[in-house]
Amino acid sequence: MVRGQLLSLPDLLMKRRVRHVVTENQRTLTAANRLRDGERDLRFLGELMLESHLSLMADFEVTIPQLDHTVNAALRGGAWGARMTGGGFGGSVICLVNRENREAMCDEIRFQAHQRGYNEPRFYSAVPSRGAHRVG
Fold first, then answer.
1. Per-residue model confidence as pLDDT tens digits over 45-66
2. Please, what sign has the CA dihedral across residues 123, 129, 132, 136?
3. Contacts 24+ apart (CB under 8 A), 93-102
4. Strand partners, 17
5. Residue 90's pLDDT is what?
């Protein structure tokens, strides 16, 4: 969708929703292209993740305060980026963080959750690996 088409949408809510979809698609293409081109410094993915979260919060309006605070705590704790995932109006936060900052990030998220009276967060680590492929 080109900018002129976005401007011609009938109401502000629809414009914001469409803007999220269009910019999310662009972020995905940017990430795929940079990875295909051999980009080794993955901090750019963190920036794209944060842009995505902010768009989910402002344009798509599917985040909740607990997720927004968790994203902010993750960034304060050393994450390169973070965003909500797993469905709107709740879900989880996925963070991109290097090994050296993982514990500090988790500690900051835990501390901030406790300060706000949120449930104790659970953490799961995932290590990048080869994508799905046919075996044999």
1. 999 999 999 999 999 999 999 9
2. negative
3. 93/67, 94/49, 96/42, 96/45, 96/46, 96/49, 101/77
4. none
5. 72
